[in-house]
TrEMBL record:
GO terms for molecular function: monoatomic cation channel activity. GO terms for biological process: metal ion transport. Residues 5-116 form the TRPM-like domain. Keywords: Membrane, Signal, Transmembrane, Transmembrane helix. It is a multi-pass membrane protein. This is TRPM-like domain-containing protein. Pfam families: TRPM2. It comes from Didymodactylos carnosus.
């Protein structure tokens, strides 16, 4: 059943039924990865195809951005509800979608709306600073310098 939904989702994308693909992605096991996979497919179609018209290329780029923004909206909502869950969702591999994870896909297609989310920034802060609470230390240093 899970693979049937994936196949239906991919069919909707390839048949240029982005409205159907958008509604199906919410029923997949990992909707963030699903929307980023759709964004990647539209990105590849716009940049790699040599025999498409300029109008079709603009349409594909618009749909790529639309799916990227949808993925950003999903991860932002998850981050508002549960930060730890959202951070795990970024790096969790999707068995249904070819072992991709959301962070890898977003970097691969340079999905700016997704990469600009608070969840990604928190992930990068955690990667860079680890468990150090850098906000507390910088505030303390500022207070010490004034006295």
């Amino acid at each position: 059943m899970v693979y049937f939904i994936r196949e239906l989702f991919l069919w909707a994308i390839l048949m240029n039924r982005s409205d159907l693909a958008m509604s199906i992605c919410s029923r997949t096991t990992n909707p963030v990865v699903a929307t980023l996979v759709a964004s990647k497919i539209y990105h590849q179609a716009a940049t790699q195809s040599r025999c498409i018209t300029a109008e079709r290329k603009l349409e594909y780029l618009k749909k790529e951005k639309e799916f990227g923004e949808h993925a950003a909206g999903i991860i932002d909502r998850c981050f508002q509800v549960d930060e730890e869950f959202a951070l795990k969702l970024l790096t969790q591999e999707s068995d249904v979608f070819f072992k991709y994870n959301a962070l890898y896909l977003a970097r691969e297609i340079n999905s700016r709306p997704f990469l600009a989310t608070k969840c990604i920034q928190k992930h990068l802060d955690t990667e860079w600073y680890g468990n150090i609470n850098y906000n507390v230390y910088s505030y303390t240093n500022i207070m010490v310098n004034y006295y």
